[in-house]
Amino acid sequence: MMASFGQGTRRHPRTSGRTWSRSGPDRATLGIIGAICAVAGFFVLGIVLGPVAMVCGWLAMGRSWAGSRSVPALIALVLGAIDTLLAVIWLAGAGAMGSGMLCPAARDTR
Q1: pLDDT of residue 63
Q2: pTM for the whole thing?
Q3: What percent of the chain has pLDDT over 90?
Q4: Secondary structure string (H, E, C) spanning the chain
């Protein structure tokens, strides 16, 4: 009786409920989603869509620089970084310009 204990796990190490891929979503799909987010980020919500594109691209690359890289994943990572950088520069410029117009000490009344 004790000899048969655990025999089922040796033949079938995974249960029937855990048959999906361990890597999560398909890497090609993540690369395409990241590329779409990066392109859309140039037009709206770049501060949000840029980092999302970078994360999707990084996950699509397998969280590693080594090995083969898919083109959509690399595009998502690079465009996401550019998109995020441009959004941060735009926000910094908007903040600097706004403080100059609204600050009374910045205007010269002479």
Answers
A1: 82
A2: 0.64
A3: 41
A4: CCCCCCHHHHHCCCCCCCCCCCCCCCHHHHHHHHHHHHHHHCCCCHHHHHHHHHHHHHHHCCCCCCCCCCHHHHHHHHHHHHHHHHHHHHHHHHHHHHHHHHCHHHCCCC
